[in-house]
Amino acid sequence: MVIGVFFVIGMAVSIIQKFVTKPPTPAEQKQQNKTAINVTLAAEGAKRLQKAMRNPDSFKLSQVLIMDDDAVCYEYRAQNGFGGMNVGRAVLAPDGQFAASETPKFRALWKKECAQKTGLDRTSAVGTVADIPTTPSDK
Q: What is the pTM of this model?
């Protein structure tokens, strides 16, 4: 009987611990806020890219990387004028500069912000916020 009581109490404590979470520390909250802002800005850039496509309904995000300096590097797919799918890239710099692979300033901006760098993959979150489909990257 005593063992049964301890078992029930132990189960109750275990269940309560699963539902009681401690609030984030100020540093954790700051990081969560920064991530939310970065994903929102990246989603706005993705929507901008989608609107610029010949066939916006064909636009899919392959990869969205948010870099340490808050630059956003995109890889996407979209239908070209012949019905085939092209792969493109774009970059949204921390200072607000935005360039897609079809624009003259793209190469220099990509090299500065994205080339040979790694960032946090936020493809799924950006796709969800922007309501844009995602597709796996070939990388």
A: 0.79
